[in-house]
Write a structure and sequence with these properties.
87% helix, 0% strand
Length: 130
Amino acid sequence: MFAEIPSYIPWALTAVALSLVFAQGVMLGRQSRQMKAALKERCDTLGRELHATASGSMGVGQRLVVCERELHELRSTIDEMRQNDPLRISYDEASRLVDLGADIDDLMNTCGISRPEAELVSALRKRQAA
């Protein structure tokens, strides 16, 4: 059966097989280069996005630090204003004087508050004492 096959057919089949292997190698090389290019492009895109995200985060972080600093300054200012509030000092002094037995006229003259305010402070302190 094999004796009837011409002698050039195995050589032709070998040449066809080698051609197909070579063509497959060329196609795989081309596909590999395309995939490398796509991967490089994707890596570059992700790198740019990461850089933009990091830059944005740093900007937000810096703004947050500034806001926290301003908040601290505002709290300090408010605390200082509360401590130095002349009305608060007058009412504190009036409460102390009521505890010592001062009457409404004494509160008005000593603390510089109006009669209704003096009456209110006196009533509140007497109520708290009771």
